[in-house]
């Protein structure tokens, strides 16, 4: 958690042209809409500015001239402008949101699709939580920038320029006089921005310290209590807490000075308009309406300046988010269809490893010089101690990872030259950590493959003994399962994953038996199911059950990444080597029972 | 509105507020004064405009008399300059009040937050492990950040804006009525509709916002599930279908976002429209009145300014109410935690005359369960360890070994049965004394992000160099010090370097032995060190252990074999007890464990 904080702490520039260019690329499909939104924004800014101008006209042309009909006309015109502004703003806001949402949709989909293409080694390096943040929170930050940041910056600038133009048009001398306070406001805002940004940085830093100290104490509370640290830690916490408080009080002080300062400068402008404008009016060089219009415009003048500075933070965090998103999108995907792909014929199910070596990190060899050949329809078990490299072998067959050296063939074809989807479709995989998706039982068996009929789902469940417990559930195959299958027992989850493998009817079965202990009754069901799964398929099994190793054709003994022994159960036992010891260690308990 | 729960919340908050009563009173006085001065500006403007429009002096006002009689104003320029200076002065004084107001009210809300956070931290330290068993760290953290912040927003900006908006609205209305009551009524017609629109649409926005949050959560868990199951998805070639499903969620997300955008747009535009209608009413009706000389142009301009001032309270009020509701909901959550009485502490049973512990310990028929509804973790434990002896506990994961040793420092209390220290009930010992005498190495080594030295000396104050020296020697962490950039002063943990599992465990052992405790508890404390180092450490610990009552929990026979007594804990019960050479001859868990580890050892050597 705190790592995430510190990562988000690193905020760089508020504008980065390289990142902006890439972001603009996502806007391209909507360039017409963007253009329209900008035009609407311009028009609605203009409509907003019309108000004081109309009041000026009313005062000068009609009220002062006692022209009641004209006044009514102006009121009507005001109404028309108001309705126009209302409609323009309405359409503009919705259009802007629409564009923003479409872009977010595209970006989110790009991230998700991209994640699907990345090789497994990427997921080993990157914790799931952080990747989820990319597709969710980071995209939201971009959304904030797109829908409120950028657009309102445009809007603010338009309004500002519009006011300047109108004031200059009404009376350039008075306008210039009003602008006198402008440099002061800009300077005040800039100083305030710099100061407040620094003190907010301090606040964030110190709250992060408080949070990590608090978290540490909550997690390690038993240590705190046993070592009698309560008082000393309270004192330390108080210090952290105080330094946070002081940083905040500093921020409050800046705000407390800034807002009145801007108001004060505004009052100076107002006073100047009243004094000089008034004098000129009395002398006859100006009309009263112009003075009133100046007063009204000057009120609206300072708001955009204040707002513009607020947008800085939004831009800054959006840049940081897009930087992270693009970094993810720049990761190289795994190539799913090789050049000159070779089609797999109707698979028979022969697997051969030729001198395969494998390392995750180019340092420690997980597998070295593995060679073996499984003939179609054979059942083979891999046994070995923890860390012997069993799981790596089966990951290589489905190309979850690529061998560092050597080659793997299926029916004589190098698996690197086959489209990855074709390869994986012909292999059924049951892993030790069973994945249950939130959805119905049926969905968990057939996944999103509509070609598998409900009858086939039920048959598969039947064959692996999952049917009885499924039919006992309230809605049978339509019962909703929770994420991770938390409403199923360990044994039920295993049976369900068997049904999944069977429903896809693969030629090759790869099974990583789960080690968890299960009650005897379920154990019998699982044994039976495994036998049915293996029937008529080339099967490669990481075996943890005595019954499994006894029912396979031959066994590969893996030790420290090398094949040390190969043969049938009895032969290997007779050797009294590694297998013999592993057998005693892993299977002897079962033998006693 | 003031129901039972909110009354309880206010009663909880009152002492925290009371501390700052004098300053807060001044703060709110500043709010009142600033708001009143803010309302004065348009009034002055009104005189100014009237002066300009008539070209002469309207003689019915105080300011005029003051100017003419005391300041000798005669030229029109003098009058205008006077009004201008007056405006600047009023805004200047208003500004100083606003400065004070922010510093006092918002500042005090931060101080209250600070007080609450300290109180929260101290309270957390008093609660026992059964509390931490029930509450997730994330929730407790959220309370300290989100909930305290919500309470602060209620007490600071919430209260400040509530007072200032109400005051602004009431006084502005009163002033408008004074200028011309008919025109006031005319211009006011749209305002209630603003409040209605804001109120209506805010509740719709809240509802739509919740729907977005739900969808957002849906997307998050979809991505989470997809990535956690990526291996299966790849193995079953489900990537494209996953993308299709994600698209659907994504599409729904933008649909809901556009829904809320529509409501937002409707709200903002309607507010603008309604406010605009009020201005039109002012223009048409007020302009007509000005033509008929019922009001002056200055009145009209003042009206326009006041009208704009009124619009803000209408919008802000909904926002302030929202702050208030959230603040109360958060207070409720905080009160709930604060109301929990610490269950393990000194009480009337405590005998403060006890100042020394010898080190005998006895468990008599001890049962324990974390929750009445959960099955017991320990059942009928009977044990007796004489001072200076060593007890070892072995058994499968989840058998209750850690729970058993956690009873000794009273991190938890037996639900049934009794624990005696030196023949006295453990509850009669002062808690601090008991814990002072325990050196504990927990199963999951927990070190704090601080220097190595601070971590080792965690349980004592002002450590002497020799003490640290000796502790690092015993745990063999000393050997590694050369590899660390700053030796003992190296920062470890989050902000420093990451120690290996074995280094962490050895640091934790130093931390325990430096206290020179009567009891030494090692809960699987050597699992991450290699067998050679284990041997070294055990060798050194042996001297330390001789003078202390030691409890060793371990999975390794090599660790426990020399203990005075070994017990096997299975499913919360003691199933075997005895010395190593007896146990390896009796069929059962211990003998199996012993054989297994011998086999593993021989396999490792192949």
What's the helix and strand layout?
The complex is a heterodimer of chains A (593) and B (606).
Chain A: H1 2-9, H2 17-27, H3 31-63, H4 68-117, H5 120-125, H6 128-170, H7 172-179, H8 181-219, H9 221-226, H10 230-283, H11 288-329, E1 351-359, E2 365-374, E3 379-383, H12 390-397, E4 405-410, E5 413-414, H13 420-425, E6 427-430, E7 439-440, H14 441-446, H15 454-463, H16 467-472, E8 480-481, H17 490-503, E9 508-512, H18 520-534, E10 538-542, H19 546-551, E11 554-559, E12 562-567, H20 569-575, H21 578-592
Parallel strand pairs in A: 3-10, 3-11, 6-9, 9-10
Antiparallel strand pairs in A: 1-2, 1-4, 4-5, 7-8, 11-12
Chain B: H1 4-18, H2 21-54, H3 62-70, H4 76-126, H5 129-134, H6 137-179, H7 181-188, H8 190-228, H9 230-235, H10 239-291, H11 297-338, E1 361-368, E2 378-385, E3 390-394, H12 401-406, E4 416-421, E5 424-425, H13 431-436, E6 438-441, H14 452-456, H15 465-475, H16 501-513, E7 519-523, H17 531-546, E8 549-553, H18 557-560, E9 565-570, E10 573-578, H19 580-583, H20 589-604
Parallel strand pairs in B: 3-8, 3-9, 6-7, 7-8
Antiparallel strand pairs in B: 1-2, 1-4, 4-5, 9-10
Helix pairs in contact in B: 1-11, 2-4, 2-6, 2-11, 4-6, 6-7, 6-11, 7-10, 8-10, 8-11, 10-11, 15-16
Can you describe what's shown?
The complex is a heterodimer of chains A (593) and B (606). With 593 residues, chain A is of the alpha/beta class. Chain A has 3 domains: 1-170 and 311-334, ABC transporter transmembrane region fold (Up-down Bundle), CATH 1.20.1560.10; 172-285; 338-426 and 544-593, 3-Layer(aba) Sandwich (Rossmann fold), CATH 3.40.50. Chain A has helices at 2-9, 17-27, 31-63, 68-117, 120-125, 128-170, 172-179, 181-219, 221-226, 230-283, 288-329, 390-397, 420-425, 441-446, 454-463, 467-472, 490-503, 520-534, 546-551, 569-575, 578-592, and strands spanning 351-359, 365-374, 379-383, 405-410, 413-414, 427-430, 439-440, 480-481, 508-512, 538-542, 554-559, 562-567. In chain A, the strands form 3 sheets. A 6-stranded mixed sheet of chain A has the order 6-9-10-3-11-12, sandwiched between helices. Residues 1-10 of chain A have low confidence and may be disordered. In chain B, the strands form 2 sheets. Chain B has a 6-stranded mixed sheet with strand order 6-7-8-3-9-10. In chain B, strand 7 (519-523), helix 17 (531-546) and strand 8 form a beta-alpha-beta unit. The N and C termini of chain B lie far apart (78 Å). The mean pLDDT of chain B is 87. The interface between A and B is large, with 139 and 134 residues.
């Amino acid at each position: 958690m705190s790592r995430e904080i510190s990562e988000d702490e690193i905020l760089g520039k508020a504008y980065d042209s390289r990142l902006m260019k890439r972001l603009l690329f996502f806007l391209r499909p909507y360039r017409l809409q963007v253009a329209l939104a900008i035009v609407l924004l311009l028009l609605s800014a203009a409509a907003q500015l019309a108000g004081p101008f109309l009041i000026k006209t009313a005062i000068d042309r009609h009220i002062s001239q006692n022209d009641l009909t004209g006044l009514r006309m102006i009121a009507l015109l005001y109404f028309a402008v108001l309705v126009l502004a209302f409609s323009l703003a309405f359409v503009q806001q919705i259009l802007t949101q629409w564009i923003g949402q479409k872009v977010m949709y595209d970006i989110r989909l790009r991230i998700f699709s991209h994640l699907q293409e990345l090789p497994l080694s990427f997921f080993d390096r990157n914790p799931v939580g952080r990747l989820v943040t990319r597709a969710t929170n980071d995209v939201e930050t971009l959304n904030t920038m797109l829908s409120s940041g950028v657009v309102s910056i445009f809007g603010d600038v338009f309004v500002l320029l519009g006011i300047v133009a109108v004031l200059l048009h009404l009376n350039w001398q008075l306008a210039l006089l009003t602008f006198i306070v402008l440099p002061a406001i800009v300077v005040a805002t800039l100083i305030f921005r710099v100061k407040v940004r620094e003190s907010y940085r301090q606040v964030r830093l110190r709250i992060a310290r408080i949070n990590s100290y608090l978290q540490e104490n909550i997690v390690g509370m038993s240590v705190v209590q046993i070592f009698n640290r309560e008082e000393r830690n309270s004192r330390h916490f108080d210090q952290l807490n105080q330094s946070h408080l002081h940083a905040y009080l500093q921020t409050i002080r800046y705000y407390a000075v800034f807002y009145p300062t801007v108001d004060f400068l505004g009052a100076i402008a107002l006073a100047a308009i009243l004094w000089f404008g008034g004098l000129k009016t009395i002398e006859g060089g100006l009309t009263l309406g112009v003075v009133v219009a100046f007063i009204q415009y000057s009120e609206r003048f300072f708001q955009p300046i204040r707002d513009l500075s607020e947008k800085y933070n939004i831009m800054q965090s959006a840049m940081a988010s897009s930087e992270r998103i693009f970094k993810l999108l720049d990761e190289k995907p795994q190539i799913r269809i090789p050049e000159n792909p070779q089609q797999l014929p109707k698979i028979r199910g022969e697997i051969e490893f030729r001198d395969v070596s494998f390392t995750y990190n180019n340092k420690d060899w997980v597998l070295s010089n593995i060679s073996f050949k499984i003939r179609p329809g054979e059942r083979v078990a891999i046994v070995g101690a923890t860390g012997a490299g069993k799981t790596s072998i089966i990951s290589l067959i489905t190309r979850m990872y690529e061998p560092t050296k050597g080659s793997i063939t299926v029916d004589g074809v190098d698996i690197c030259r086959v489209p990855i989807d074709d390869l994986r479709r012909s292999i059924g995989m049951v892993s030790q950590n069973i994945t249950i998706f939130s959805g119905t039982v049926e969905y968990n068996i057939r996944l999103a493959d509509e070609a598998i009929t409900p009858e086939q789902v039920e048959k598969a469940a039947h064959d692996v003994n999952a049917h009885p417990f499924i039919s006992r559930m309230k809605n049978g195959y339509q019962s909703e399962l929770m994420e991770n299958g938390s409403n199923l027992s360990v044994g039920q989850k295993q049976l369900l994953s068997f049904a999944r493998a069977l429903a896809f009817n693969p030629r090759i079965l790869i099974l990583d038996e789960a080690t968890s202990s299960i009650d005897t009754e379920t154990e019998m069901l699982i044994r039976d199911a495994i036998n049915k799964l293996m029937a008529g398929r080339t099967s490669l099994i990481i075996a943890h059950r005595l019954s499994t190793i006894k029912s396979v054709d031959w066994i590969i003994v893996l030790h420290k990444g090398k094949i040390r022994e190969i043969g049938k159960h009895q032969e290997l036992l007779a050797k009294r080597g590694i297998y013999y010891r592993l057998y005693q260690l892993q299977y002897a308990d079962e033998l006693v029972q | 509105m003031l129901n039972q729960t909110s009354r309880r919340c206010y009663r909880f908050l009152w002492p925290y507020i009371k501390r700052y009563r004098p300053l807060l009173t001044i703060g709110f006085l500043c709010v009142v004064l600033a708001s009143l001065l803010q309302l004065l500006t348009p009034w002055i403007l009104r005189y100014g405009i009237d002066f300009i429009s008539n070209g002469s002096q309207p003689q019915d006002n105080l300011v005029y008399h003051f100017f003419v009689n005391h300041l000798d104003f005669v030229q029109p320029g003098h009058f205008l300059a006077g009004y201008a200076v007056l405006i600047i002065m009023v805004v200047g004084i208003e500004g100083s009040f606003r400065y004070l107001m922010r510093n006092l009210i918002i500042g005090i809300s931060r101080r209250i937050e600070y007080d609450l956070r300290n109180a929260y931290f101290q309270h957390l330290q008093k609660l026992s492990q059964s509390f931490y068993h029930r509450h997730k760290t994330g929730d407790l953290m959220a309370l300290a950040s989100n909930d305290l912040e919500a309470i602060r927003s209620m007490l600071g900006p919430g209260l400040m804006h509530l007072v200032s908006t109400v005051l602004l609205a009431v006084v502005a209305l009163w002033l408008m009525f004074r200028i011309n009551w008919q025109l006031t009524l005319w211009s006011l017609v749209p305002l209630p509709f603003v409040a209605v629109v804001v109120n209506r649409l805010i509740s719709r926005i809240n509802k739509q916002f919740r729907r977005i949050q739900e969808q957002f959560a849906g997307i998050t868990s979809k991505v989470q599930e997809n990535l956690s199951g990526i291996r299966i998805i790849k193995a079953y070639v489900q990537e494209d279908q996953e993308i299709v499903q994600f698209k659907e969620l994504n599409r729904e997300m933008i649909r809901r976002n556009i829904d809320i955008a529509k409501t937002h747009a409707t709200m903002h535009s309607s507010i603008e429209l309604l406010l605009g209608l009020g201005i039109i009413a002012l223009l048409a009706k007020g302009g007509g009145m000005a033509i008929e000389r019922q009001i002056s142009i200055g009145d009209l301009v003042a009206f326009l300014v006041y009208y704009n001032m009124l619009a803000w309270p209408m919008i802000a009020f909904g926002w302030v109410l929202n702050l208030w509701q959230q603040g109360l909901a958060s207070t409720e959550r905080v009160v709930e935690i604060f109301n929990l009485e610490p269950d393990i502490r000194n009480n009337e049973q405590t005998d403060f005359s006890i100042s020394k512990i010898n080190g005998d310990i006895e468990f008599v028929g001890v049962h324990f369960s974390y929750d009445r509804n959960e099955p017991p973790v320990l059942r009928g434990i009977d044990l007796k360890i004489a001072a200076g002896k060593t007890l070892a506990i072995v058994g499968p994961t989840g058998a209750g070994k850690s729970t058993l040793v956690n009873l000794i420092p009273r991190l938890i209390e037996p639900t049934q049965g009794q624990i005696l220290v030196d023949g006295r009930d453990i509850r009669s010992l002062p808690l601090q004394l008991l814990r002072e005498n325990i050196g504990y190495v927990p199963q999951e080594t927990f070190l704090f992000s601080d220097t190595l030295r601070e971590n080792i000396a965690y349980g004592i104050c002002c450590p002497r160099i020799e003490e640290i020296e000796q502790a690092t020697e015993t745990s063999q962490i000393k050997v590694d010090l050369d590899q660390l950039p700053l030796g003992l002063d190296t920062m470890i943990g989050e902000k420093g370097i990451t120690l290996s599992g074995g280094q962490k465990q050895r640091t934790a052992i130093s931390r325990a032995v430096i206290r020179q405790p009567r009891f030494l508890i090692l809960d699987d404390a050597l699992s991450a060190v290699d067998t050679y180092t284990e041997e070294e450490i055990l060798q050194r610990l042996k001297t330390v252990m001789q003078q202390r009552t030691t409890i060793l929990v371990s999975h390794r026979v090599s660790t426990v074999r020399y203990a005075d007594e070994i017990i096997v804990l299975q499913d919360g019960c003691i199933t075997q007890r005895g010395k190593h050479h007896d146990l390896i001859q009796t069929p059962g868990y211990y003998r199996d464990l012993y054989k297994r580890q011998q086999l593993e050892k021989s396999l490792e050597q192949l």
